[in-house]
Amino acid sequence: MSALNRVPSLIARAGTASALTLAAIGGSVVVPGAASEAAAAALATKALKIAASKKGSPYKWGAVGPRRFDCSGLTLYSFKKAGKKLPRTAAQQYNKTRHISAKKRKAGDLVFFHSGSSVYHVGIYAGKGKVWHAPKTGDVVRLQKIWTNSVWYGRVK
User: Which residue positions in the chain have pLDDT lower than 70?
Assistant: First the structure.
């Protein structure tokens, strides 16, 4: 009898089993919320790769791609290509994300630059304190170190 076939009888005899025990015998564990977190992480990773692929694309106010972008146009385009629709502006995007602390930020989360309570810029967190973004007129989509502490983070749900 294989280990996998013994799982139900082992659990029945023990009453409950830890995740480590199940893993050791080849079972699986369903963790509430884990699938949605994994799906969000996969979506964010895909959006991050799409944004990075636009490196060097010119900034144009109001542009949403595929060749020119403003800041929220880049995030909208990247997540749309990854399979998730976002609102148009940085402030609207902030209001549609799950707000997270800097300690919990992950690559693919959105970085919102703010002055007081007003969000004025957005990019996609690339890890190691860097962000992919479309900075301003005359500039191009690029990876840059986050230059201020006046940022909030949001995870696309």
Answer: 1-35
pLDDT value at residue 33: 58
Q: What is the pLDDT of residue 32?
A: 58
HSE, side-chain direction, 13 A CA sphere, residue 33 = 1
pLDDT value at residue 31: 56
List, by residue number, the catalytic residues: 71, 121, 133
Half-sphere exposure (CA, 13 Å, Cβ side) for 32? 0
Q: What local confidence, expressed as pLDDT, does residue 23 receive?
A: 44
Q: Which of 89, 97, 96, 91 is nearest to 64 (CA)?
A: 89
Q: Write the Ramachandran bin of 143: left for phi over 0, alpha for psi from -120 to 50, otherwise beta.
A: beta
Give the integer Cα–Cα distance in Å for 23 and 30: 12
